[in-house]
Automatic annotation (TrEMBL):
<dbReference type="GO" id="GO:0003824">
    <property type="term" value="F:catalytic activity"/>
</dbReference>
<dbReference type="GO" id="GO:0046394">
    <property type="term" value="P:carboxylic acid biosynthetic process"/>
</dbReference>
<dbReference type="Pfam" id="PF01063">
    <property type="entry name" value="Aminotran_4"/>
</dbReference>
<dbReference type="GO" id="GO:0005829">
    <property type="term" value="C:cytosol"/>
</dbReference>
<protein>
    <recommendedName>
        <fullName>Aminodeoxychorismate lyase</fullName>
    </recommendedName>
</protein>
<comment type="similarity">
    <text>Belongs to the class-IV pyridoxal-phosphate-dependent aminotransferase family.</text>
</comment>
<dbReference type="InterPro" id="IPR050571">
    <property type="entry name" value="Class-IV_PLP-Dep_Aminotrnsfr"/>
</dbReference>
<dbReference type="InterPro" id="IPR001544">
    <property type="entry name" value="Aminotrans_IV"/>
</dbReference>
<dbReference type="InterPro" id="IPR036038">
    <property type="entry name" value="Aminotransferase-like"/>
</dbReference>
<dbReference type="InterPro" id="IPR043132">
    <property type="entry name" value="BCAT-like_C"/>
</dbReference>
Length: 179
């Protein structure tokens, strides 16, 4: 059964989102020594994710970007973080490494396949909150929302994303090619 896209999702796609960073309470490295924490299983540990989103709403934000206890970007409660930035004079799309305590995003993986075919450099990198502020665009990507541009982070407006329209097109192409 196909249902209408929820207004929250439509608004995030259209207008972008304000997000806050929250400490996830886990280090970026070494979590494999603690398998009982189920760090990469959003379906099993969803209570923390939903509580984080409720907390974000009380702060006037619509979404969350989790940060590791050692200061690295992890993921959103229901999304993968992707940034656009310049690397050696070329636009690159970057996302946190899959060996962090995160769930690999299928939308992000499909996006990288399409973006590479279009000539973009795509890579996994350790990112910090400062990297998000300095980026040429920050998006939360997922199979439901597709791409929500982060326009405000921790109450501070981010610069406009020069490739916002192209990024949305890349995500649309990724979704179409992944069927």
């Amino acid at each position: 059964m196909v249902t209408e896209v929820a207004e929250r999702v439509a608004a995030a796609r259209r207008d972008g989102v304000a997000a806050i960073t929250l400490d996830r309470g886990l280090a970026a490295a070494g979590i494999d020594a603690l398998p009982w924490l189920l760090a990469g299983a959003k379906t099993l540990s969803y209570a923390v994710n939903m509580a984080a989103l409720r907390h974000a709403a009380t702060q006037g934000a619509g979404d969350v970007i989790f940060v590791s206890s050692d200061g690295y970007i992890l993921e959103g409660p229901r999304s993968t973080v992707v940034i656009a930035t310049a690397v050696d004079g070329r636009t690159a799309l970057l996302t946190p490494p899959p060996w962090y305590p995160i769930l690999r995003g299928t939308t992000q993986q499909a996006l990288f396949e399409v973006a590479r075919d279009k000539g973009y450099d795509c890579d996994y990198r350790a990112l910090t909150p400062a990297d998000l502020v300095a980026a040429q665009g920050v998006w939360l990507v997922s199979s439901m929302t597709l791409a929500a541009r982060v326009h405000t982070l921790d109450g501070r407006p981010l610069p406009s994303a020069p490739m916002a329209a192209e990024f949305a097109g890349l995500v649309d192409a990724a979704i179409a090619s992944d069927r």
